[in-house]
Structure formats: C-alpha cells, structure tokens
Design goal:
Chain lengths: ~200, ~210
C-alpha cells in the first residue's frame, strides 16, 4: 500500500468519498462537496461561455462583422427581466431563441427520428429479427393512435406495442444501471488504486 | 401591445420558418439567412448562460446574508464559482490551475454523482420490480437479462444472458424504441409548430 502524495488525487478521492457518504445518511461532508461541485461546474460553464462569446461574436465583430452587434444587443435584452418596467423586452431575444430552436428541433426530428427510423425499418423482411423489428415498430406506433377508438385489431396491436415498449424500457433500464455501475467501478479503482495505492 | 405580444410572435415565426425552409429547400437566400440566424442564436444563448450565473450569485448571496455569513456551503460555492471564473478567464483554459479544477474537482465529483444513481436505481428496482402482470414481467426479465449480460460475472452465472442481451438490444429494443421515437418526434414537431406559428407563446414569456 502506497498512498498517493498528489494533492489533486487526494482532492478527487475525498470528493468521491464525500459524495458516496450520502449513501449512509445526508451529512455536511456531502453537502459541502456537492456545493463545491456546483460552483466549479457553473464556473466552468461560464468560462466556456465567455470564451465562446469572445471567439464567435466579439472578435469577429471587432474585425468588421458589425452585424453581430444585433445578437449581442438581443443577448443584453435578456437581462431586462431584472428591471420590472422593461422586463417585457426579454421576450424579444427569447422569441428569437425559441423560434430558431423550434425550427432546428423540427428539422432534426423529421430527419433523424422520422425519416431515418422509417427508412431503417423499411428493409427486406428476410429474417426473423427483421420481422420482429418491423412488427415491434408498427405495434408500438399503434399504441399511440389516440385520435380514434381502438377496435379489436388495434386493441391487440397496441397491447403488443406496450409489450415491445416494456422490453425496450427494461433494456434501457439495464443499460443505465450497468453504465452507472461502471462509473462507480471507475471511481472505486481511483480510490483504491490511485489514491490508496492498493494492488 | 405590438412590441410586447405581436413582435415576439413575428420574430419566432420568421426565425423558425426561415430555418425550416432552408433545410427543406435549396434556396440560397434562405440558407444564408438561416446560417446567420443560427450563429446569432448561439451568441444570444451565451447571454442566457449569464442569467444562470447571476441567479446562482443572487440565491447564494441571499443565503449568506440571511445566515449572517454563517452559511459555509453557500460561501464555498461562491468562492469555487468565482475562483474558477477568474482562473479560466485570466489564466486561460490551458492553464495548470484551470486543468486542476477540471481534472480533480469537476470530473471526479461529477463522475461520483453520476455513479451514485447505480445505488439508488438498484435499490429502487429491488423494491418496485414485481412481476404483477405481463408487462411488468417483460420489463423485469429484459432488465435483469441486460444487467447480467453486461458483466463477466453474469455470463458465468447465466451463460445465455450474453447472447440474449445482444438480441434484446439489437432486436426487441430497436422495435420498441423506434415506435417510441417516431411517436415522440411527431409530438415534438406538433409542439415546435405551435411555437413557430405563435400558438404557444408561453414558451417566450407571452400569454
């Protein structure tokens, strides 16, 4: 056993232990580590934001792309929410963000989630697996036919669709658990091997 | 009235429609405009990040004031927050100090928090997974098989769990997920369309 003398490793290990200590009971050590993490994460996000702003807006504007003053002014308008009399002004940049975001999301949804998924399903049904995928897609879609009353056939297909979706949820659950466990193993390896020097 | 209600709706409509047209039609004017709109959007979004920063400072400075300076958690949060910003802005993202904060505070703590769910989700599953009906049974079986099939120990306990996991992930899961994704996308498009044409004004603070 050779305990690390690296201050960074100590901080990392104590942070991890602080977080895991909540498994026993909520305690001041956990709360402190949690607050420090929030502060560091928020700080990092702000630093990334400032650098992105400098590189993508401020510097190009100084170099002659004067139109960029418009989004900068719109961005400043977001802060009008802190002044009651002019708080409504923040609706202008928000509407810009929401309108553009909705447009981008819409085209992304059409391409990857509708066209992409349908074209991936429309393959030659030559194997048992391809039939299962095809029927699973159709059945689970039929579960979402909510605009008309279900008949005998759609009742059965939607029921089967629920079964397919449950299988998908189970798979997603199992995957999530294993993903989190592998992260925990990584942390324990860090604590036992890198910090405590065991093994 | 026009500035408060109609103008935001017009802006949302113009931006949304331009971005959509630029994607579906090869019209140079719309494509150039959409590119510019997307660039502007990312600039405005950075300012939105500042709102979050201001809120953090407001909330925690209020906490400190109320506790008359005795709220160690909020003090620690604000100190870490400010130190990270000062280091990142003045010393740069490539500096040793910034890397130290990132590598030894942010990454290990974030990873520990991320992995914490393994314990909670495991105990929650143990308490709630009951094979009460066919659907719950399917959920239970697929969940357990995938968990077993993803670790070497699982393969030792139940050898068929590995091929079963592969089949579940690449066939059963795909069938169920595709239906969900397509249905979800249709709902998503409906909401997006409502925002773009101004029926969902609450999204940007309207009535």
């Amino acid at each position: 056993m050779k305990i690390s003398t690296d201050i960074g490793v100590w901080i990392g290990a104590l942070s991890a232990l602080g977080i895991y200590s909540v498994l026993i009971k909520d305690n001041p050590f956990y709360t402190m580590v949690e607050h420090i993490f929030v502060g560091a994460s928020a700080g990092i996000a702000v630093v990334v934001g400032i650098n992105t702003f400098l590189n993508s807006a401020w510097s190009p504007m100084i170099e002659g792309k004067y139109l960029l003053i418009i989004p900068i002014l719109l961005g400043i308008l977001l802060y009008s929410r802190y002044f009651e009399d002019i708080a409504w002004l923040n609706r202008i940049p928000l509407s810009f963000l929401m309108g553009t975001g909705a447009g981008v999301a819409m085209r992304g949804a059409v391409e990857s989630q509708i066209v992409g998924q349908i074209s991936a399903t429309m393959v030659k049904l030559t194997t048992f697996d391809s039939w299962i995928i095809f029927l699973g897609t159709i059945f689970s879609l039929s579960y979402f036919f909510l605009t008309f009353q279900r008949g005998k056939v759609t009742g059965v297909t939607s029921q089967l669709g629920r079964h397919f979706m449950m299988a998908a949820f189970g798979a997603a659950f199992g995957n999530t658990v294993m993903g989190r466990i592998s992260a925990a193993i990584g942390r324990f390896q860090f604590i036992f091997l890198k910090w405590l020097g065991l093994g | 009235m026009f500035l408060k209600k109609t103008l935001p709706t017009i802006i949302a409509f113009v931006c949304g429609v331009t971005v959509i047209i630029a994607y579906f039609f090869n019209i140079p004017f719309f494509q150039t405009t959409a590119q510019e709109i997307l660039k502007w959007q990312s600039v405005i979004a950075i300012f939105a990040l500042g709102l979050g920063a201001i809120n953090i400072i407001r909330v925690h400075s209020t906490n400190i004031r109320r506790a008359k300076g005795k709220n160690a958690y909020s003090i620690a949060l604000l100190i870490t927050f400010i130190v990270t910003i000062v280091v990142g802005v003045f010393l740069g993202q490539e500096s040793e100090a910034y890397k130290f904060i990132f590598d030894y505070i942010n990454v290990p703590t974030g990873s520990a928090i991320f992995s914490l769910l393994a314990f909670y989700i495991g105990t929650a599953a143990y308490r709630s997974f009951r094979a009460k009906n066919i659907e719950a049974t399917i959920l239970l079986i697929t969940g357990c098989l995938v968990m077993l099939g993803r670790v070497p120990l699982g393969a030792k306990i139940l050898p068929f769990s590995v091929p079963a996991t592969d089949w579940i992930m690449s066939v059963l899961n795909v069938g169920g997920q595709r239906g969900l994704m397509i249905a979800g996308a249709i709902g998503f498009i409906a909401v997006s369309l409502r925002i773009v044409i101004g029926l969902e004004r609450t999204a940007y603070g309207g009535d």
